[in-house]
Amino acid sequence: MASARLRRVVREFAGRVTVEHRCFALAPDPEAISRIFGSPERGKAEILTHWAAARRHPDGEAIHVEGMRSASFPYPYSMPGLKACKAAELQGGPEAHWDLFDRVQRAHAVEARNIADFEVLRDCAREVGLDLERWERDFRSPEVERRVQADLQEAARRGIHAVPTLILNDRWVVQGAVPEEFLRRVIADLLAGRDPSRRS
User: Fold this and answer.
1) Residues 6 or more apart whose Cβ sits within 8 Å of residue 96
2) Burial class of residue 119 (count of CB atoms within 10 Å of its CB; 0-12, 13-18, 19+)
3) Per-residue pLDDT reduced to its tens digit, 66-121
4) Distance between CA atoms of 175 and 161, rounded to whole angstroms?
5) pLDDT tens, 22-47?
6) Inter-residue contact 82 to 110 (CB < 8 Å)
7) What 3-state DSSP class applies to 17?
8) What does pTM read for this prediction?
9) Distance separating alpha carbons of residues 7 and 19, to the nearest angstrom
């Protein structure tokens, strides 16, 4: 998955790159999939075609499309997972956000669990070592809601409409699942003060 590729590239630059996660919702509420695709069933079928494509990328081999397809619950909407990761961020900063994001994504894409279910999210928070009492309190807090909404507003302002989207140096926008070597080259160019778009 894209997160694993980004983690490897960031490690190569040994503390010279900082990653800050922001929330973005393709389906922010339970009715969103029906609004976008016409019905929950059509939405799930379309979304699973994207997961099937992601499975063909490096680090996507473990994606369990058939497990997601056969799951009895509706395709999960975004808001509970966004709040879970933002609550982790309040407790442990960007690293905790990223760790929980990865664990929640694995719960969904590999384990085919319902990540709109609070108990599933709580299990993920426990597994990454968060203080669960504080995490639950933050998850339900107006502050987490405010921060998630602020991120969503920023995404709208920037015209973001795809997952994943990276914004490098607050200027360079990279959308979609790009190869690891591309990320490495762009980051190296930026660190060296070069314009990545000018390389032939």
Assistant:
1) 88, 89, 128, 130
2) exposed
3) 999 999 999 999 999 999 999 999 999 999 999 999 999 999 999 999 999 999 99
4) 9
5) 999 889 999 999 999 999 999 999 99
6) no
7) coil
8) 0.92
9) 9
